[in-house]
Write the structure tokens for this entry.
Amino acid sequence: MPLSKSEIERYQRQLLVDSWDKERLKGARVLVVGVGGLGGISAAYLAAVGVGNLRLCDSDRVELSNLNRQILFAAEDIGRPKAALAAKRLSAQNPEIKIEVISDKLTETNAIELTSGCDLIIDGLDNHSDRLKLNNVSFDLNIPFIYGAINEWQGQLSFFNPPKTACLACLMPEELQDPKPTPVFGALPGVIGSLQATLALRYLMTGENPISNALLIFHADTMAFETVTFERRPGCGVCGKTIPSGPRR
Ligand SMILES: [Zn+2]
């Protein structure tokens, strides 16, 4: 899908980047599940660089306590739906791309419809229970997802695409007792959301997943990155099942 004259000017600097595949990017479709601290950041960067089709999914409305980290929203947005607001902001920043709004939660019931045609899912969720549901959807529909999570001074990142990789349930099968609310300051989801967007771009343009079967942990208190490797678990309740027969990405 060739770029227009205005797109060539808009994307001038990134077109200089080695291995940058502008046409694949323009043809890509990404679902961002949750557009808060993590998903708001990854969606903002994916929109700015010109991922051609973004689908933003969030059933929440903006609250005052979101504004310490969810920088797509303003004080005047309190009480308004996040997905539609995020789409409006990102469209204003880059009117060249298509953005779809889903003001609903991703569930196993609506998953086929919500993920239709998507190459990739970005996890912008805020609890492990919903991430395990997203992991089921990702496996059942053969769409890889980029996991991101934060808590206090630690952030995590991984890429799940079984059977090429393990799935989230291989690594963390149990429901976790997430602290409610999660302790978080804005810069950390900013770091992890940016890493999710960076990894997404690498995958969308090259098909490469540089952190296969690895969990990248960012320790913000010591400014250290740590990589923990893991393997698929044969008895996994999700990807240990029969592999769906559809084409895998
Ligand atoms: Zn698994």
Observations:
- The mean pLDDT is 94.
- The longest strand covers residues 145-151.
- Residues 162, 166-167, 169-170, 232-233, 236, 238-239 surround zinc ion (CB under 6 Å).
